[in-house]
Amino acid sequence: MFSFLLYSISDGVCRITLNRPEVYHALSPGLIHEIRDAVEAAGADESVRVIVLTASGDRAFSSGADLKEASEPIQAGERLSLGEKLRTTYHPMILAIRSVPKPVICRLNGLAAGAGCSLALSCDQVIMAEEAYLSLLFVGIGLMPDAGSTYFLPRLVGQQKAFELCATGRRVYGPEAERLGLVSRSVPSADLDKTVEELVSYYASAPTQAIGAMKLALNQSLTNSLEEQMEKEAQYQDLLGFTKDVAEGIGAFLTKRKAVFSGK
C-alpha cells in the first residue's frame, strides 16, 4: 500500500511510521504524499481513534526536505518555484494532520530538522526523547522556515522566541523543548515508548468525536472572535449531543460508574 512508510491499525490505534532510515527519513515528494494519504485513510476509518506518527530506528524522526533530490535544478542554474513545491506537497500534508478529527500523537524519537520539525509541530501532542532535538535549520541554506512553522511557533512560544529559533536554527533538545512549550513531554529515550503508549491508550478509549470536535474548535479559535467561537461551540455541541458516547457518559455519571466510550 505504501512504499516509504509503514502503516498499521490495531485496537483503535493507527501507527504511521516514516521508513527511509538510509536518508534519516528525508521528506521526498513520495513520502510527503504518502503521509497525507495515510492520515486521510486513518481519518476515514471508523475503527481508528488515535493516530501515532513516528519514524523507524532511533536516530531521526525526519531530517527535513530531501535536498539531494531538489538541488539538481538549482545547481544547474534553473529557476525552481519553491512556493509551488510547497503548495503541492507540504501544504496538503500539514493540512491533513490539522484537519483530521482525531488526535495525532508524534513520537519524536530522534532529530527533527527543517520541514521535519514543522511536521512534528503540526501534531496535536508531541512526546519527545530527551536526547532528540528540534532545529529550524532553514537559515543555514538561505531559506526561511515553511510547512507551517511560522504559524505554529509564535502560538507555542511567543513572537520573540519564535524569531530566535527561526533566525538561528539552533538545536532545541527535549528538556528545553518541553520547557518552552514546543512539546507536551520530554522523557529519557528508554521511557519514550512507555510514555507514548500510556497516552495512546487514553485516547483509544476516549470519546473520539468529542476529542475531534475539541481539536477543530481550538484550531478555529485562533482566528475567530469570541462571538464566532461560542457559536462554533454551540454547533459542535449540537452534533455531539446525539452521539452514543454522550448517552454513555451521562448514564455512567448518574449511576456512579466508569464510562466505557465506543468512539461513536
Question: What's this, in brief?
Answer:
The protein has 264 residues and is α/β, with parallel strands linked by helices.
Question: What does this protein look like?
Answer:
- With 264 residues, this protein is an alpha/beta fold.
- It folds into two domains: 5-204, 2-enoyl-CoA Hydratase, Chain A, domain 1; 208-254.
- The chain has helices at 29-44, 67-75, 82-99, 115-121, 149-157, 159-168, 174-180, 189-204, 208-221, 226-240, 244-254, and strands spanning 5-10, 13-18, 50-55, 60-62, 104-108, 111-113, 125-129, 133-135, 172-173, 185-187.
- The strands form two sheets. Strands 1-2-3-5-7-10 form a six-stranded mixed β-sheet, sandwiched between helices. It has a four-stranded mixed β-sheet with strand order 4-6-8-9.
- Helix 1 (29-44) runs parallel beside helix 3 (82-99), helix 5 crosses helix 6 (159-168) and helix 9 packs antiparallel against helix 10.
- The model has no long low-confidence stretch (mean pLDDT 94).
CATH architecture of the largest domain: Alpha-Beta Complex
User: Strands of the biggest beta sheet: in what spatial order?
Assistant: 1-2-3-5-7-10
- List unreliable stretches of 5+ residues: none
CATH class descriptor of the largest domain: Alpha Beta
Summing up helix and strand content along with how strands pair, one would put the structural category as alpha/beta
Shape: globular
Largest sheet: 6 strands, mixed
CATH topology of the largest domain: 2-enoyl-CoA Hydratase, Chain A, domain 1
Radius of gyration: 19 Å
Arithmetic mean pLDDT: 94
How many β-strand runs?
10
Quote the distance from N terminus to C terminus.
Answer: 28 Å
Q: How many helix segments?
A: 11
**Helical fraction:** 40-55%
CATH superfamily grouping of the largest domain: 2-enoyl-CoA Hydratase, Chain A, domain 1
| Total individual domains | 2
Q: Which sequence of SSEs, written as H and E, runs from N to C?
A: EEHEEHHEEHEEHHEHEHHHH
Q: Beta-strand percentage?
A: 15-25%
